[in-house]
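hi! just following up on the protien thing from before. the input was this:
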Amino acid sequence: MKPITRDILLTLLFKFTLLFVLWWVCFHDVERGHLTQTEWLLGSLVQSAQAHSE
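and the predicted 3d structure came back as:
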């Protein structure tokens, strides 16, 4: 393996490792809401539409 290729692979591995660690630190305690798939896709539009229809 050429030195430049090895350096690039090591750099990418290091960056993805740091990215995963950062993601885990930021989001490991986040609880998912109890949303249906439609509510998740459309966000608050579904909730406001249901409120107006009642």
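The first helix runs from residue 3 to 27.
The mean pLDDT is 81.
cheers
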